[in-house]
Design brief:
- The protein has about 240 residues and is α/β, with parallel strands linked by helices.
- It folds into two domains: about 10-170, Vaccinia Virus protein VP39 (Rossmann fold, 3-Layer(aba) Sandwich); about 195-240.
- It has nine helices and seven strands, in the order H-E-H-E-H-E-E-H-H-E-H-E-E-H-H-H.
- It has helices at about 10-20, 35-45, 55-70, 100-110, 110-115, 130-140, 180-190, 195-210, 220-240, and strands at about 25-30, 50-55, 75-80, 95-100, 120-125, 140-150, 155-160.
- The chain has a seven-stranded mixed sheet with strand order 3-2-1-4-5-7-6, with helices on both faces.
- Helix 1 packs across helix 2 and helix 4 (about 100-110) runs parallel beside helix 6 (about 130-140).
Length: about 240
């Protein structure tokens, strides 16, 4: 009797990332950490092979141990700073997850021709999200799908992005003001995402409580800042009614 291989279990956040990968594609997972996403994709039959890259040797060693433990031999491991050791055409899906928005931006900007060669890009930035969305939009990228994942008391945006030149002809998000789309996610607003609505309502309560405790004479600048944040949140919530 053959050995029964252990199945990898993904967190809700990682499963949302993996779920956006098109079936049958060849993903390149940059900053792969322990390679759980490509392992899960192969075990579930969504893909047949993948490339996993990380700048540090430690995560790659752990990834190699996981590949052996889970019985997966079709993931190629490479030590690479971003896309440094990945040539255009080697993969058609790019995954960049678990990094700050600024680092995600740097990786995408460093090798523009390689980035343009992908059919889709899956991003899960953990900071500077509005700034990353703004840069993507201004650089010709198109966010075509987005999910907001609550996990461990935080909210993680997961987005599928098309490289410049691959934008669909008709986009529902074109009706959303750019400022709101960059701040909160145009796709999420368009589909009246309940997780986003819950987060925005929670933030409204928090900011309103803070506002009520500020002295109008002593905290004019802070009051103006919070009032602006609240007006943007209310504008997004109105579009989700």
């Amino acid at each position: 009797m053959g050995r029964i291989m252990k199945e990898v279990i993904l967190s809700r956040r990682l499963k949302a990332i993996a779920g956006m990968v098109t079936e049958g594609s060849v993903p390149a997972d940059v900053g792969c950490d322990h390679a759980h996403i490509p392992i899960w994709l192969i075990q579930t039959g969504r893909i047949r092979r993948a490339i996993a890259l990380d700048v540090a040797e430690g995560p790659l060693k752990m990834a190699a141990m996981n590949l052996a433990e889970y019985g997966v031999d079709s993931v190629e491991l490479r030590q690479s700073d971003g896309l440094e050791r990945l040539e255009a055409g080697e993969a058609d899906t790019l995954i960049i997850a678990g990094m700050g928005g600024a680092l995600t931006h740097r990786i995408l900007e460093q090798y523009p021709e390689r980035v343009r060669s992908f059919r889709e890009i899956i991003l899960e930035p953990q900071s500077e999200v509005p700034q990353l969305r703004t840069w993507l939009r201004e650089s010709g990228f198109t966010i075509v799908e987005e999910e907001l994942v609550p996990e461990d008391g935080k909210y993680y945006p997961v987005m599928k992005v098309l490289p410049p030149g691959r934008a669909p002809a008709d986009r529902e998000t074109d009706e959303i003001p750019e400022e709101l789309a960059d701040l909160f996610g145009g796709c999420l607003i368009c589909r009246k995402d309940p997780v986003l609505a819950g987060m925005l309502n929670r933030n409204t309560r928090i900011l309103t409580d803070i506002l009520g405790g500020l002295n109008p004479e002593q905290h004019k600048e802070r009051i103006a800042q919070i009032s602006l944040e609240l007006s943007r949140i209310r504008a997004a919530l109105e579009r989700m009614q």
